[in-house]
Amino acid sequence: MSGFLGKLSPTKRVVAGNNNDLPLFYSNSMERCPRDTPRVTATLGELLMNVDDASNDHRSLEMASPLTSSASSFNSWTSAPASSITSSPFVLSFTDLTYSVKIKKKFPPFCGNSSSNDSALNTKILLNSISGEAHEGEMMAVLGASGSGKSTLIDALANRIAKDSLRGSITLNGEVLESSLQKVISAYVMQDDLLFPMLTVEETLMFSAEFRLPRSLSKKKKKARVQSLIDQLGLRSAARTMIGDEGHRGISGGERRRVSIGIDIIHDPIILFLDEPTSGLDSTSAYMVIKVLQRIAQSGSIVIMSIHQPSYRIMGLLDRLIFLSRGNTVFSGSPTYLPQFFSEFDHPIPENENKTEFALDLIRELENSPEGTKKLVEYHKEWRAKQQAAARYYNNGITLKEAITASISKGKLVSGATTTTNSPSSFQTYANPFWIEMIVIGKRSILNSMRQPELIGMRIGAVMVTGIILATMFTKLDNSPKGVQERLGFFAFAMSTTFYTCAEAIPVFLQERYIFMRETAYNAYRRSSYVLSQSIISIPSLIFLAACFAATTFFAVGLAGGASGFLFFFLTILASFWAGSSFVTFLSGVVSNVMLGFTVVVAILAYFLLFSGFFISRDRIPLYWIWFHYLSLVKYPYEGVLQNEFEDTTKCFVRGIQIFDNSPLGQFPNAVKLSLLKSMSGVLGINVTAETCVTTGIDILKQQGVTEISKWNCLWITVAWGFFFRVLFYFTLLIGSKNKRR
C-alpha cells in the first residue's frame, strides 16, 4: 500500500451542488449555517497534537477531549503553515449502481404436468440505477421499508459486494475508489453489536486503538485518543463497565451501539458506513447515537447510514436523504426539499405531519397499488435532472492524493500514515507489523478467557475426570494375555479421548467469527496474525492438560518405560491435544453452526478411531479403505504409545501355560495344560514349559500391524498434522471471510 497514492491519476473533480443549499446543524440548534462556514469541531488527530509524550498525563487527557478542548487548541492548529492545512472537501459520488441476484422460482403444478417440482432461475433486482453523492461534514441517510434495498446500497458503497456483481461507478473526489484504498480510509459498522462480552468499554476501545493506530504513536497518545473518544461517544460513566451478554450484566443497548461505532472510528476514517445504527434502540438512545455521528461528520468525515424510520429530532440532524422503494430511488436530496418535492408530485405534506412518516407511508401505499411506485420513480428522475441543471459547478483543482494528504496533515486517518509528521505522503495496508498484531490479539484473548474461568475449569475437569476413571478402571495391569488386551483398550480410549475433549474449541471461534470478519474486513490486522496468535496462546493450556492426564494415568495403570517412557507418553498426549485442537479449529472455520460443528467433529473422530488399527489391524483393512487408515489422526499417537509400551524385547507377555487363557482350554486344570504342553513339545521338537516365553512385546506389535513407523516418527507426524490443519484454517479464513455478497 506504501506509495499507492502516488500512482493515482491526477483527475480533477467537478462537483455538482450549491454549497448553501443544505443546512448544517450544530448541537441542539436548528439554525442553518452556510456550508462555507468554518467548522469548530477538530479531528481527534488535531486534538492529540496537544498531547506531550514526556509528562502531564492528566492535562493531556483533558486537552484530548473534543468536548472540553478550548478554542485556543484549535486555533493553534489553524495557525500552521498554509501548505500543511490546505484541504478540499471530500465528495463520495455513486452513479447508476445496479445489483441483481439469481433466485430459484418454483412453478406451480399444471393439470397433466407431473413435473411440479421443476424450478428455474429468476433475476431479482435489488438496486436499480441508484445515483447520488455524500459530502464531507454531512450525514446521508438511506430510508425505506424492509426489503427496499437500504442495507444493499450501504454494502455496495462499502465495497461489500463483489465487483463482478455490481454495475456502476463509485468515486471519491472524481477518482475511482480502489478497494485497497477504501479499506484504509473507511470503516463499516454492522447492524449487530459484535463485541467481546467480558471486556470493559475502555478495554474494548483500547484494543481497537492498539490494532488501528500505528506503533509509532506512543502509548500515552493512544490512551489519550481512547479517552477523548469515550467523551465524544458519551460513555464516560460506563467506561469501566463490562460489555456483558445474556449471562452477564453489562452496558445498555444504546451504549453498546456507541461502543460498536467507537471501535471503527478510533482511527478517524474519512468515510463511515453504518447499517441501521438505531435499530432496536429507544428514541432517546437512537437520538444520542445520531448525535454522536453528527459530531463525527463535523470533524471532517462522510457519514452514510441506513435507517428504518427516524424520529422528528433525528431528521433535524440529517443533511441528505435517499428514499428507496424496491431497489429504486424515489427521492434524494436535502430534508428541506421533501415538502416541495411531494407538493409538486400532487401529494402535499400536511402542515403538522411528520415529513418522513408521511413520505414512507405514501411510498408503502403506492407499492401496494397496481402501478406501484413507477410514476414516483419517473418523477424523481425529472425532478433530480432539474436540480442538477440549476446547480452551480466548481473545480477545486485538488487531486484525491492531495486531499487525503492534507487530511492526514491535520491528524486524521492516523492508522494510514507511515509517519506521524505533518506531511505524510503514503499509506500502509496495516497499521502495525504482524508481531505487534499477534501480541495484541493474544493479550485480548487471554484477558477474555481469564474472565471466564468456568470454561477453563470445565475443560480441565473433563480431562481430569476421564483420567481418574481410566486410572481406576485399568489399575496396575499385569503382563498376561488379558493385560495385553486391556492395555490395547486403554491406549485406544485414551488417545481418542484427547481428541474428543478438543471439541470445546468449536464455539470459541464461532463466537468470534463475526468479530474477526468485521475487524479483518478493514485491515485491523492480518489473518495470519490471528492464526499464529491463537495457535501460540493455546499451547500453555495444552501442556497443562497433557501433564494432568499423563500424570493421572501413567503410573496408576502401570505403564512401562520409567521416566523416559513417561516423557514420551506425555509428549504423545500433548501432540494429540495439539492435532485435535488444530483439527477442530479448522472445522470451526468451515461450519457456521455450533450444533452442526459438534455433529461433524464427533462423526469424523469416530471414523478416525475405527480406522486407527485398534478394532481391526492394518493388515486386515480392505484395500479400498486403507487410505482412511493413513488419514486417521488417532492412528499415529496410538501406534506411538503401543511401541513405547511394547518395545522392550526382554519383556514377556505370554508364557507357556498362558497360551490357553484366551481359549476354552483355559478352564481346564493346570495339570491338563502341562500335559498338553508336553505333547506339543514332542510334536514341535521344542521344549515348551510353563515358564517358556511365547510372546514378547515385539510379537504383539507385529500382531497389531505396528511395524512401519517408529514411535518418534509417529510423534512428529501427529505434530505435523496439527500444523497442517492450522494452515488449512488460515486458508478457510482467507477464502471464507471475504464478507462480500456475490
Automatic annotation (TrEMBL):
A GO-annotated cellular component: membrane
Name recorded for this polypeptide: ABC transporter domain-containing protein
Domain ABC transporter: 92-351
Keyword Cell cycle part of the UniProt annotation: no
Similarity comment: Belongs to the ABC transporter superfamily. ABCG family. Eye pigment precursor importer (TC 3.A.1.204) subfamily.
Keyword Zinc: no
Transmembrane segments: 456-477, 489-510, 531-560, 566-587, 594-616, 715-736
Topology of the protein relative to the lipid bilayer: Multi-pass membrane protein
Xref: InterPro entries: AAA+_ATPase, ABC2_TM, ABC_transporter-like_ATP-bd, ABC_transporter-like_CS, ABCG_dom, ABCG_transporters, P-loop_NTPase
Entry superkingdom: Eukaryota
Organism: Brassica campestris (Field mustard)
GO molecular function: ABC-type transporter activity; ATP binding; ATP hydrolysis activity
